[in-house]
Amino acid sequence: MTDSSDTIDVLHVDDDPDFTDLAATFLERVDSRIAVRAADSAAEGRDVLADHDVDCIVSDYDMPGADGIELLEAVREEYPDLPFILYTGKGSEEVASDAISAGVTDYLQKGTGSEQYELLANRIVNAVDAHESHRLLTERTRRLETLIGNLPGMVYRCRNDPPWPMETVEGEVQSLTGHTAGELERNEVKWGAEIIHPDDCERVWETVQDALAADGAFEITYRIVTDDGDTRWVWERGGGVYDDDGSLIALEGFITDVTERKEREERLERTTARLEALFENSPDMIDVHTDEGTIIDVNQRFCEVFDQSREELLGTKVWDVDRESDPDELRETWDGMAVGERHEVETEFGRADGERFPVKVHLTRLPTDEDEADRFIVISRDISERRARERTLRRYEQMVNTMQEAACIYDSDGRFELVNERMAELYGSPTHELEGRQSTLISEIRDGPDGDRYRELLDGDRAELRGEIEVPIGEYGPAVLEYRLTPLVADDPAEGIVGVTRDITDRRDREREFERMRELLERTERIADVGGWELDPDTREVFWTEQLYDLFGVSRETEVSLDLALDVYHEDDRQTVADAVETALDSGEAFDIEVRFRSRDDETRWLRVQGVPTVADGEVVTLRGAVQDVTEQRRRERQLRRAREDASELFNGMNDSAWVIGLDEQFRAVNDAAVDTLGYSRPELLSMGPHDIDASLADGEITALVEAMPDEEMQVFETVHETAAGEQIPVEINSSLISYQGETAVLSIARDISDRKQRERQMAEFASVVSHDLRNPLNVAEGRLELAQEECDSEHLDAVERTHTRMNALIDDLLTLARNGTSVTETEPVDLRPFLDTCWRNVATADATLQAEMSRTITGDRSRLQQLFENLFRNAVEHGGEGVAVTVGDLDDGFYVEDDGPGIPPDRRSDVFEMGHSTADRGTGFGLNIVEQIVAEHGWEIDLTAGSAGGARFEIRGVEFAH
Hints:
The protein is an alpha+beta fold. The protein folds into eight domains: 8-146, Response regulator (Rossmann fold), CATH 3.40.50; 149-264, Beta-Lactamase, CATH 3.30.450; 282-382, Beta-Lactamase; 387-509, 2-Layer Sandwich (Beta-Lactamase), CATH 3.30.450; 532-629, PAS domain (Beta-Lactamase); 654-752, Beta-Lactamase; 757-807; 820-957, 2-Layer Sandwich (Heat Shock Protein 90), CATH 3.30.565.10. The radius of gyration is 42 Å and the shape is extended.
């Protein structure tokens, strides 16, 4: 109740007269200023609004005929500023978004109990007060505009013609335009034709004419061009001058230079845009709070981490997020901070589901005006990975130090993170001096000719890295090291690299000496290139290397002539070789051919024969070449061709539409299913791209998807395809990167999900009916019950209240079944011990107790698992009686939930999972059906047996444990 005695006239539009009557009773009791007038439809509401003065409209959303959004849109056409509150039992993000777009003042979901009416009354009073404040602000703005008319500048009187010829000009004309007043008054310079910037002329003319047609007054900001060619911004305010007959005879107004202000505004807008981009796109969580700890702003990352919307987070307290903080200690810290001072601390944040995670917090006090509350900006970074890494390093530290070889751990940049004594001895430095230093070994590997192999190891492209390398080591100069590098863990990318190193300088010196001796011996024995041949054009004598004698099966004692050299080839290819040789001798051009020959075991093999002539004084003086067995290469090429043919058959044999998309967003290949489904011919599709068939995504969104394709994972999204006949087909797209004909491309497979979308719409319609048509009458009944309980005390009323509670639970379970679907969308490791405590706290357990004997971590959908355990706990409490003991324990392939209640007879155990079945007065009959659904969604199995104390025991098997 406020001190003001002014009446607040409220129009309440709802198709349920009982509910509007109940709401009016409560609202008028909460605040005596409120007077409620009811209407049972949007049409009746508009009639009431036409005949009566109304301060605020409260409307339901889902009504026969026009809904609440349509009523809002109609009201806004005639009453753009009238407060309008959408008060509905059918709440969703889509409805809220539509309401905001239509100009709703406030949005409130119907709840249970009388508290909802206190909240509604408060929202009504706030909306009416805000509307009155806006009216007063408008009046103050009008007065301020009168004062602005006296700013320095020029005043004028001109005709309302496009050139706007001036009749009278006074004031700072020349300093503003560079022209004298006389030049303008004599029309030597015309304002509209020569001074207004050409790009602004049309806009200025249309703005002034629209204003004259309305109320006759106008104001506008535009550019002018001065006498010396400079561009300036001016602000003009004026109006029409009319004769006694009401005819427009002239314009009068005031013009002033606002160039500096405009430039400041543009700079401020650019700066603000950059800061907003940094705020919203920061990878860290950012929030702003007052000196009372109230959060007044958060960025997108903050919302993502806490899985809450900005609206849900605004108004919460800092200590609701920082679970380790003490409010009094925080206020003491804030009071002691100067503006700009920075404070750092590590603490733990907690999500609404009870999960905690470590963060590093940077707190800074912001500058504020004298009349503003103190504000602080907080930049928080999740350091869970760092903490995990520190624990991992501690586990590896003892392992590394026990190794007998020089061992260490490198970070992702190639610095020593941990070294053992043997590594320190190798480098000749204490361990603490080596740790943190850049490794010369890693630097040499990264700068090597084969690219950054160390990065490949970190990214998971290599399982290990072995080799030998010469690097400078401490004071000893160059040393040859044999190394083996492996990822620290099996993550992608790796957290670090484990290195084991051995100094093999002496061994390498011996090996190099031996290699030099061997190469010297081979060069002495080798008189020509391996597999080489040479032909003397004059004598037609041919020289073969030893390898050719062995390849052709000819004795090394045989003198080779050109005829003999040709005879070794397959009879069908000898002429090919002979022609290639003669052409090379005649033209001086090299040749490269592939021909056949028969090996000593009568196998036909393929040879690549090359010949390069040496030309002197225009004549070929010698012809040299090489012979290479390419049989295996040709065999691989045939296999590759067959593989491509098989892939093509598989591609076209798919039932789903599929295509290959180039990075230029054009189709490279389409399968038969795509041609049949879309109704285009294959040539037509190959001239198109995904943007030509997509009826849902804009071109820019398709480009963003192509650019964001992951290297190794699958990209999955939903969209709508449009056929040549105009039919729209909802599809699920699965895309991955492939190599197609030598270029990187995207393979996309589209599956028709029309049936699935139909099921989703049906479930949404069912949820709408449950939410609106069942919940609304129940709200009315609960309100009436509360009024009745105030007037009399009866055990029958208590029974009615229990019945209402059970009906609410029934509706909640029905909505859970309708909205949660039948598939698990995302799984993660869930540590059951703290998770079970959270679920237990969410259930009204009275004197019941929980014994959590399970300490394992399972993999599952966290939200669905919470529903599973809460329903099992609630079932045990409802059926087990007061003081029931609930136990959760391990199985070899899962877990069990057991109570010591009366249990369930064997002949009734198969019925408990049926929808609507319940043996307790308080039960809804849906809880165990939901449990069975969740188990099935995870691919598990559930079985009901007798517990060790005779109660009910639910065993869930087939569970995947996180390692």
